[in-house]
Amino acid sequence: MDKNFYITTPIYYPSAKPHMGHAYSSIIADFFARFKKIDGFDVFFLTGTDEHGLKIQRAAEAKGIPTLEFCDEISKTFKDLSKILNLTNTDFIRTTEDRHKKSVQSLWNQLKENEDIYLSKYSGWYSISDEAFYSEEEIEEFEGNKRSISSKSAVEWVDEESFFFKLSKWEKPLLEYYKKNPNFISPESRKNEVINFVKSGLKDLSVSRKSFSWGIKVPNNKEHVIYVWLDALTNYISALNYPNKDNDLYKKFWPASIHLIGKDILRFHAIYWPAFLMAAKIPLPKRIYGHGWILSGEEKMSKSKGNILDPIEIIDKYGLDPLRYYLIKEVSFGNDGNISKEKLEDCINSDLANNFGNLCQRVTAFATKNCGGKIPDKINFDKEDLRLLNKFKSNLNLIRDKIDNQDINYYISFIVNTLFETNKYFNDQEPWKKKDQMTRLNTIVYTTLEIVRKISFMLYPIIPESSLKALKIFNISENEINFSSLENHEYLKKGISINSIDILFKKIEKIND
Ligand code: MSP
Fold first, then answer.
1. pTM of the predicted protein model
2. CA of 7 to the centre of ligand 1 (A)
3. Is the CB–ligand 1 distance for residue 259 below 6 Å?
4. Is there an atom of ligand 1 within 6 Å of 293 CB?
């Protein structure tokens, strides 16, 4: 079985500082990367910044600084955010790097050589904010100006010489590919959008611009720069040292396991990118997942709308892990979601502090007092203990399967329900009344500690720092976390000392409590 896993986030435009929408894509990708890592996969996790195009050039001009200097500055804020979000990315790519330029130009040459690129003239609408071409049917009139119906961003008329990619030629092969690979585009509703769009007919795509210079030059041409989306999408193979297909990274990780993106950029990833790759005879990524948006009120959060929520402000106030937990649990994956401080505080108080934190504290305090501060030795599982412990063993493959289908909701519900059941089990078993039946008392404590261990392993992809803090109870370190070990009921070594730990999550005092 292929034990390599390659996951990517979109590369972000450094036109302004990162916001919660960007943090969301990155945190979800980190969740999958960490899960695969603890399940024994070799993981390559890529993120970065998309630095060319008119949008960036204009943003730099507005600040009055040279474009590259502007990019350096803002790209750094994205790189810093990866650290703040505790991402485990393997690489951070910038499209202004030489390795990427080389890769894009090489892909261009390949497309040219295969006769998929020709010179003509583009006359039509273009949105700088989306860096996208729109047809007449895709735009509307708004307050005397034209704008895209889907994104609501302004469009302007472009009339210039341009190279074209023969996208129309790939209409049928794309439809066949979607049919043969029903999981290529997820979730299902998004797949249908894409298929309908392709079925309605694909026109050739303008892939170069002449009226500005901030981009990668078309090879052997002084006037044209390559269309920013052809440039940007190539980052996914640049990071694996394309065009050198013989190197270990490319051989091991291409095709990508999953490109995780927001639903607004599905067309680029599910139509243009596979068409470019087919034309260049490069295998296609295995899956494109278009997640929903983080909304501000009813609208997508974005710089142009001025309704930005800063992830750093939330982290400063509540901590990183609560934010990660909230985004993974409360934003139902695939759908849009809101950030509500009230719901975030509820998550901290009930799920993190009460359900998880309290269980850890309670069982370690009890074991310290009643089991000599050690993992109990003499145990004898009965039906109740095994029922709880078996939940993991019998669901292990199902959980893996759910993760491979990006069913994060299943994963998190499993954790929340199991924590709830374990708290109930500890209460119902009343170990404090069993001081004259030490084997029973020991078994209840052992079972509960095993579940704390198992749940901490499962929480690691979601709240890594807190999971590691909890695992200090058993002196388990990060590189020992291993998903397969959840089927072992007696992983914890008997007779070994346990450590007490500081409170994992402080409860938030609510005014009306
Ligand atoms: N540069 C392109 C992507 C190129 S990938 C080859 C781009 N950049 S972006 O900075 O505008 O957006 C990057 C990602 O952030 C997209 O997936 C987008 O959907 C996501 N988000 C931006 N705002 C968002 C929300 N408010 N909510 C969730 N994600 C959103 O597009």
1. 0.96
2. 16
3. no
4. yes
Backbone angles phi, psi at 296, to 5 degrees: -120, 105
Angle at 512 between CA 506 and CA 513, to 5 degrees: 50
Does ligand 1 have an atom closer than 6 angstroms to the CB of 11?
yes
The CA-based angle 489-456-288, given to 5 degrees, is 110
Domains of the chain (ranges, CATH numbers): 341-487 (1.10.730.10)
What lies within 8 Å, CB to CB, of 456 at 6+ separation is 467, 470, 471, 476
| Protein residue whose Cα sits closest to atom 22 of ligand 1 | 21
Tens of pLDDT, residue by residue, the chain (513 residues) = 679 999 999 999 999 889 999 999 999 999 999 999 999 999 999 999 999 999 999 999 999 999 999 999 999 999 999 999 999 999 999 999 999 999 999 999 999 999 999 999 999 999 999 999 999 999 999 999 999 998 899 999 999 999 999 999 999 999 999 999 999 999 998 999 999 999 999 999 999 999 999 999 999 999 999 999 999 999 999 999 999 999 999 999 999 999 999 999 999 999 999 999 999 999 999 999 999 999 877 777 776 677 778 899 999 999 999 999 999 999 999 999 988 888 899 999 999 999 999 999 999 999 999 999 999 999 999 999 999 999 999 999 999 999 999 999 999 999 999 999 999 999 999 999 999 999 999 999 999 999 999 999 999 999 999 999 999 999 999 999 999 999 999 999 999 999 999 999 999 987 654
Show the CA angle centred on residue 302, arms to residues 300 and 305, nearest 5°: 90
